[in-house]
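Lab meeting, action items carried over

1. Structure of the two-component assembly. Owner: GW. Status: complete.
Input record:
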Amino acid sequence: MISSNNTVLIVDDSVTIRHQVRLILNKQDITVLEASDRNSLKHFISSNQQPIDLFIMDLGLKVDSGMDLMQLIRLTDAYCDTPIIVLTGDSKRDTVLKCTRFNISFYSVKPINASDLSMKVLTALEAHTIKKRSKTTGLFDSNSSNDNDFDLNELDSALKKTHMSKINKLIDGNMSKLKKNK
Amino acid sequence: MEENIKLFIQDMGIDSPEDIKNLYFDYLQETSVIIEQLASNFSTLTCSEAEKLVHNLKGVSANLYVQGVYQAALQLDDYLKGHLGESIMDANSCLLLKNLVNTYEKESKEINSYFESNLNSKIG
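Predicted assembly:
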C-alpha cells in the first residue's frame, strides 16, 4: 500500500548520521534528501520541485534548535501535517513532552536501530497516506482526529510509570490512547 | 573493532561492502575534525563548547559501534557536564581528553585496517 515514491528529508548536522539513515531507508526504496541546518531545510520546504512525505528531525543541531525547525515546518502550509519523526540522543521526559506539540509521529532515541527506524518511517508514511485518501473519499471525520489534541496530563502520567529507556515503546504503543476524548 | 564492524553490518542489514566502507570513512572524516578541534584548541574552548563537540563525537561513535571512542567520549562528556561554567583546563579533563585522543587513534587505525584487508572480499 505504501508508494515506493516516498521522499524523506533527514535534518541532522552529522554527515555520518545522514548517510546511515540514507542507507537504511534506501533499502525500503525511499528517496532520502538531506539537510543540515535551517537554511538547507528552508530550501527544501520552500521548493516545489520535490515534495517531502516525511521529516526525520534531530533535536541537538550545532546552531539551530530542532524544536524551532519543527515549528518552521508546521508553519509551512504544505507541511502542516506531514509526519515528523524525532531522531535524537535526548531521552529526557520533558523533551519528549515538548515535542508532542509539533504533532510528531514517533520519538526515536539514538543509537539508531535500523529495523526500528524503518518500521517507524513506513508506519508513519502508511498512516499519512491512509489519512489523505480518507479525506479525498470523504470518509474522514476531521473532528474526531485532530492530532494536536494530545492529553498532556495523561502522557505525563504514562511517562512517569515507565523507565526512560522505554520511551519508544510508550510512544509507539500508546500515543493514540493519549488523545483527548471529545 | 573488527567484531564491532561485523556486528554493525549484521544489524544494519546492508549487503554492499562499498556502502559500509563509505559510511565508516564518512565517520572517520567527520570525527577526525572533531578530535583535531579538541586536541588543538582544548585550552581555548569553553566547557560548553568542548562538551558539545564531545557529545557529537560520542553520539556518532555509538551509532557506528565504535565502542572504545564512545566510552572515552562518554567519560569526558560526563565530566564536562558536571563542570559547565568552570575552567576546562584541569588535570582530570586533560587526562580524559588524552585518553579519548589515544583511543580514537587506535580505533581509527583498526577501522582503516579492517577495510584495507576486506576491500576485495565479502564483508562479514
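2. GW to write a short summary for the group page. Key points so far: Chain B touches chain A at residues 11-14, 19, 22-23, 26-27, 29-31, 52, 55-56, 59-60, 62-64 (CB under 8 Å). Helices of chain B lie at 2-12, 17-41, 47-63, 67-81, 91-117.
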